[in-house]
Amino acid sequence: MRTYDVRQALRIFRREPAFAAAAVLTLTLGIGANTALFAVVEAVLLRPLPYDRADELVVLRHRDVETGLTKPDIALGDFVDLRARQRSLESLAGFSGFPTTFFGGGEPIRVDGASATPDALQALRVRPALGRLFEQDDARQGAAPVVLVSDGFWRTHLGSDARVLHRSIQLGNTRHTVVGVLPPGFRMPGMPRTDLVVAQGLPAAAPAQRRSGWIYGIGRLRHGETLGRVQTEMTTLSKQFETEFPDQNRGSRYEALALRDALVGDTRRPLLLLLAAVGFVLLIACANVGNLLLARALGRQQELALRLALGASRRRLALQLLTEGLVLGLAGGLAGIVVAWQVAPALVALIPNAALVPGLEQMGVSPAVLLFAFAASIASALLFSAIPCFRLSSVDRRALPGQRAGTMTPEARMAASALVVVEIALAVVLLAGAGLTLRSFANLLAVNPGFTPDGVLTVQLGLPDGRYDADDARRAFYTRAFADIDGLPDVESVGAAMVTPLTGNNWSVPLNRVDRPVAAGQRPPEVGWQMASAGYFRALRIPLKSGRIFEPHDGTGPAVVIVSEAVATRFFPGESPVGHRLNLGDMEAEIVGVVGNIRRASLTDEPRADLYFPFERIMIPQSTLFIRTTHDPVAALPALRAAVRRIEPNAVLYETRTMANIAEESAAVTRLAMRLLAGFAAIAFTLAAIGVYGMMSYRVRRRRRELGVRLALGATPGAVSRMVLWQAVTTAAIGLVLGTAATMVAGRTLSSVLFGVTASDPGTLATAAALLAAATVMASYLPARRAARVDPVSVLSAE
Fold first, then answer.
1. Bridge pairing between strands 109-116 and 89-103
2. Which segment of 240-244, 324-328, 663-667, 744-748 scores lowest on mean pLDDT?
């Protein structure tokens, strides 16, 4: 690209500001949208994770073959044996997250902690900013409690004290000695933040309990090992456990995943899907600009013919046209970077659970993103400049100034129509995709979760350690708290539970009827479980189908349990489960009630069989309160806090959310896809309509003489108008057919965000096609009207 050509291109665009502005604006939309989404993709999928040689890190997942559920946590018995028997990893380390309370002299503060085996931080190759990491002796039984604090915790709560090492801090009921400060930005994998890490010890021998998991497994590949080898070894060990412990491990499989795959999870596919969709927008923009340049090149035939006659080579003219395209592309790219800089943070705000997705907090217009924008600008310029360059072969040296410019050649008409066909086909794909996700989102919102989320506030409650270790102390606190909260204005009912519905919980427990026990050596079927108080069912309005809900005496009397309708249907067909007894490991429990099914993990999760254990029996110190109010639930929070603090000043209340918001978040991935696809579809729809209008307007302008002759020979204005409209509709029809076929093929990749609708839904495809067909007719109406109003006398007399 020569300097002279650039100056010439700029002079030309200064003389044609409307054309240049239209082309640059079109490219800005396409390149800006692509760059903004690529900034998110680069941060999440391409940028190195904040761990040394993170590609060597592997995490384990547990999969239940019978239920199909996959969980990140591992039962301690299996973890100890996996750790001892595996050979593919340098070591299999373990960690888990937990909330705790920091007492620093003022009001108690809830912090996010992690307990980790000493080799976990070594596997992550962590280098402390101050002090040291854990040593093996720190995790032995009876060792003095030690803690590593995060850089943020050190600065915020410990005053950036350089002499913090060996300082004692109060966490819960235990004092810990600070032995190190973690590097800035560090967090354990999969945790939104890590304020501190305590040393986790492991038993020398594997415990007998192998069903309830709570520890996450992570390790680093040995030199020369691969992820596939680790997976093969995990499969072998899983089968060994199945043989050795059939009553607990039958159907259990352990899988190895790369750390990035485990952290990104369900975010990868929607991001790649949306990146492909926004790529379609850029292609449509390129087709539009290509049509503009083609029309402009046809109007410059005499200029180009003159330059050829004066000795310029076709190669030289092609270079000039290509330079003009590159100038437009780079201008659109620069404006697109500005758009991306503004739009990318808004995209991050739409991503569900963004705090858990690695890289998003550092997302921005990085050098890689700038390189992408530059590459997109160059590629776009080459793409839309290709057709005008190819048109040079048809420029006739004899088409000198003063001669009549000919009409569009068949090749030119075919090229212009092909570009519009591409625009319409891609617009169909985006419109159909937006329609499918819109229907999915509507279906999700219409799902009955089995309870009534409106009007319910959820609050996480943490009681200080030490003061509530005894069952009687916890029972006294909750009894008074429930009574005081229930007496607040606007409070209709209050309850407590261990986990919150629709937050992804897939905990399970074996179910075994006492009167029909599973055969010896066989693994009992798994069902979900929850620990809930009587008020939990009232607050969420989970219907009681038979029997009763929990009562105060269930806290101290014989063990009881409530089952869901799915349990009754699956395990007690044709009979009432009330009164039957279940074998629950080391105890038996009587079924006292049957309640309605709920969607426990998410709105897309089909209701599963669930057991409910009485919260009144244990009343754990860390729980979730569910408060149903008669008015705005958030307005009840101050009074709720005051009521709890009157009973226990050191209680910590955190993560306040309404159940309505939680239900909305359950549909967050589909909502993200719907919003972005709808935005991309709107841009594509507009560009396609502009493309049809531009093509038909130029055709009418180039065919004025032909149209004048037709009218002079007796054609009616209506016939001419219908002819123009028919040409537009024919072109659009080809695009609609191709677009519909492409949608049915590409729809398979959309299935991960669809719910209650198939990718080939005929109603959605027909609606997308009808919208674009209507847009085509409307965009062609004005050109068709101008064609019908051509004056034969003025056109022919001008010859």
1. antiparallel
2. 744-748
DSSP 163-220: T-TT-EEEETTEEEEEEEEPPTT---TT-S--SEEEE----SS--S--S-EEEEEEEE
- Under DSSP, the state recorded for 513 is B
Statement: the pTM of the whole predicted model exceeds 0.90: no
Please state, in angstroms and as integers, the Cα–Cα distance from residue 416 to each residue in 20, 699, 737, 776, following that order: 19, 9, 18, 15
- Give the 3-state DSSP-derived string for 606-642, with helices as H, strands as E and coil as C: CCCCEEEEEHHHHCCCEEEEEEEECCCHHHHHHHHHH
pLDDT per position as a tens digit, 276-313: 888 888 888 888 787 777 666 655 656 666 666 666 66
Residue at 223: amino acid letter: H
DSSP line for 293-333 = HHHHHHHTHHHHHHHHHTT--HHHHHHHHHHHHHHHHHHHH
- What lies within 8 Å, CB to CB, of 485 at 6+ separation is 491, 494, 625, 627, 640, 643, 644
> Regarding beta strands 109-116 and 196-199, do their DSSP bridges make them parallel or antiparallel, or are they unpaired?
parallel
Q: 């261990």: which residue's tokens?
A: 498
Q: Identity (one letter) of the amino acid at 449?
A: P
Query: What digits encode the pLDDT tens for the residues 51-88?
Result: 899 899 999 998 888 767 788 889 889 999 999 999 99
Six-digit token string for 287: 């087709």
Q: Decide if pLDDT at 573 tops 70.
A: yes
